[in-house]
Amino acid sequence: MTTKILVSDKLDKAGLEILEASGLPVVMKPGMTEDELCAEIVDYDALIIRSGTRVTKKVIDAAKNLRLIGRAGVGVDNVDIPYATEKGILIMNTPSANTLSAAEHTCAMILAMARNIPQAHKSMHEGKWDRSAYTGVELNGKTLGIIGTGRVGLEVAKRLKAFNMKMVASDPFPPKKEVLDEIGITLLPNADEVVKVADFITIHSPLLPSTKGMISMPQFKMMKPTCRVANVARGGIVDEDDLYTALKEKIIAGAAFDVWCNEPLDENEKKLLELDNIVTTPHLGASTKEAQLRVAVDIAESAVKYLKEGIITNAINVPRGKLTPETAPFVPLAERLGTFANHLTLGKAVTSLEVVANGNLANGDTNLLRVHAVKGYIRDMVGADNANIINAEPVAKSKGIEIKDSKNPSSVNYSNIIEIKVVADGESCSISGTSFGDEPRLVGYNGYSFNVPLNGNLVFLNYADKTGIVGAVGTVLGQADVDIKEMAVAVKDGCSKAMMVLIIGKPLDESKVADLARAIDGTAKFVSIN
User: Fold this and answer.
1) Which residue numbers in the chain have pLDDT < 70?
2) What are the CA-CA distances from residue 80 to residues 53, 116, 391 (Å)?
3) Is 54 among the residues known to form the active site?
4) Which of the listed residues 27, 31, 349, 369 has the most CB atoms within 10 Å of its CB?
């Protein structure tokens, strides 16, 4: 089936040329309504957007083949990220392509706000010459409060440092202290502490549930009456109704806003335009020729790499971590162990799944091994084609399964072992495996040790350790015309029961599994791993 790309917002010609040069069919249809997009997107594999398209649950449900959403820009609050992730759809953006443009626009907005440039410009064009009405303030010696010290926030700080501004900032995930020290930024505990001391405030946080409305009337009342606030980040971080009141009642001196809760503005927001102490622009932060070119090229190149080669870059919903030459060979093992664990717990209420890296594996980054194990676990829940590392853990967690991982540098029998511990119906089950070359091997099951291929049709027999078992098993399988390809028998200290593991030539139905259990006066379980 041909991979198809839909572009639903305007994209620079250079980006379109990269998409078209890939040989993949590309359709550009900007300006669609939600219903039109739902009707169009049904059989597309990739959707390239900017800020104009809203990728809602309705759109995602309509997209039967969608596996990539590419955002030409930074903000992805116009995408239902949790639902797209649950559906296994990769979301990419271009985190650095418009950084400089956004930073420069922020500086321009702060300067315009400080010197009343838009108001003076309007007055001049009305034929007036009123110098005293537009007396401004200097940036020199003032305190700049930076809320969010990501790429844009740091670039703004670098530029305004030249104006001899003092700088304070808050960020729940700040950069290294050396980075802040080099620019001259003092980190404060939280945003409230920043707004109390700042003369100018610039916002550079993403729009998240935790940041929505984070600047509202309580924060405005903490600010100096001479404070001025700039927002070139995302609409909604500042409560617009409270902003209106703060400006109108002169609780703060001014504001400069490029981003809004609704774009274009709704009737309620338009009341802000009646005020003379706010500078406004229509979301121009990334609107430079250079930024438009960079975001288009970056997202096009990233999309083509993923769609044609499976290479993931600038993804926001892929688990962190990387596979090294040491850990990569264990990915098939992790996935098969996960699938095996699922088969062992069918019909049971699973509450916990823990992935343990033993031996040399414990010394490296094992995050993606854990994710691949969970991917294997959910494979038969959602279908092999629908299970991937993007949706693996969200799907498992949605089933009420707690995902855990741990490391154990010691390993008794093998240099590297992956173990999966599952709690189902209140009982614990443990399986472990290793990899010989490219072949995953099962080496442990509930304390029994053996070594068999983790592939094909497996039978596990648990019985009181006594003679005659091999003959009884052979008789049942012979009557069913089932050949035994490999056999292993294991016992464990302090236990009177043995376990036999068989690799057989074809699947067993439930009646034959029951026949085996009766023949050995024990339990029998059949599992097929492909």
Assistant:
1) 1, 412
2) 11, 39, 14
3) no
4) 369
Taking CA atoms, 187 is separated from 103, 108, 146, 167, 194, in Å, by: 20, 24, 9, 9, 9
Q: Does the active-site annotation cover 234?
A: yes
What pLDDT does 388 receive?
Answer: 87
Helix (H) / strand (E) element for 17: namely helix 13-21
pLDDT, tens only, 412-440: 678 899 999 999 999 999 999 999 877 99
Instruction: Specify the pLDDT at position 32.
Output: 97
Calpha distance 422→402 (Å, rounded): 10
- One DSSP character per residue, 445-475 reads ETTEEEEEESSEEEEEEEEES-TTHHHHHHH
Q: Which two tokens stand for residue 256?
A: 């400069």
Cα(204)–Cα(208) distance, rounded to whole angstroms?
Answer: 12
Is residue 241 packed enough to be buried (19+ CB in 10 Å), middle (13-18) or exposed (0-12)? middle
Is it true that the peptide bond before 453 is cis, omega within 30 degrees of 0? no
User: Of 50, 204, 234, 294, which residue is the catalytic one?
Assistant: 234
283 is catalytic: yes
| Residue for token pair 């092999």 | 384
Distance CA 474, CA 487 (A): 11
Which pLDDT score, from 0 to 100, does residue 119 have?
96
Q: Which of 54, 159, 283, 343 is catalytic?
A: 283
Q: What is the identity of the amino acid at 185? A: I
Helix or strand or coil: residue 141?
coil
CA 121, 125, 126, 131: dihedral to nearest 10 degrees?
Answer: 40
pTM of the model: 0.70
Question: Exactly one of 17, 34, 193, 263 is catalytic; which is it?
Answer: 263
pLDDT score at 156: 98
CA 18, 20, 26, 30 dihedral sign is: positive
Report pLDDT for 1. 67
pLDDT in the model for residue 279: 98
Map 261-325 to HEC letters. Answer: CCCCCCCCHHHHHHCCCEEECCCCCCCCHHHHHHHHHHHHHHHHHHHHHCCCCCECCCCCCCCCC
The three-state secondary structure class of 501 is strand
pLDDT tens readout for residues 82-133 = 999 989 999 999 988 899 999 999 999 999 999 999 999 999 999 999 999 9
The whole-number pLDDT of residue 75 equals 82
**Stretch (H or E) spanning 26:** strand 26-28
